[in-house]
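Bug #77: duplicate submission created two jobs. Keeping one. Sequence:
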Amino acid sequence: MSSRTLCLHLRIWRQESAQAPGGFCDYTLESVSADLSLLEALDQLNEQLITAGERPVSMEHDCREGICGSCGFLVNGQAHGPRAATSVCQLYLRQFSSGERLTLEPWRAAAFPLLQDLAVDRSALDRLIAAGGYCSVNTGQAADGNAMLVGAEQARSAFDTATCIGCGACVASCRNASASLFVAAKLAHLGQLPQGQPERAQRARAMQQQMDQEGFGSCSSHLECEAVCPQEISADWISWMHREARRSAG
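Kept job's structure:
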């Protein structure tokens, strides 16, 4: 463990509710350990705010291991911060210099209404999954693992897209607030496996229709989604999704 400490200046968006006016507030953390994650640094700040009788900074988090996708906000205008393939809960202060100023603000997208401070409502992604991101199966005893064979390359490719954690960084970084990478990953995950074939066309239509209903924008191929994805899911899958749309319409 490093013993290095640093001083961190935080400029944080504070907004009590979606209806209330919001603005940036400045805070300073003195002698904070460089081994802390940015979320842990915010925990430390919140302890100071609570002790002073002030409202703590609201943020989303759960596993803090880069798995659940709950955390996420903009760090100096970049989703999840400057480190590639890293969710904000795994962004450590050793990535920054002492005295550095970090601006923290929530995801900015019409489909992600603000709840408070850095927390937004990402339930639109849940509704996309409910629209078709699943396989309908009969309940009962689990099928034998070898009953339906899946090739190694097919399984690897499906797993690459299944790693999407649904954090919403792709939406927040897209100038059109498009959910195309998220939807493409979910479609490609199931669409490449034999279990996903019976509902493949219906799934593609339903999820893309729901994407439009939720107010997500369209893809204009600027590839910001790929650049900020903590799982490094390729934007090539968006082209695959478009092919699925044509296939389902045929």
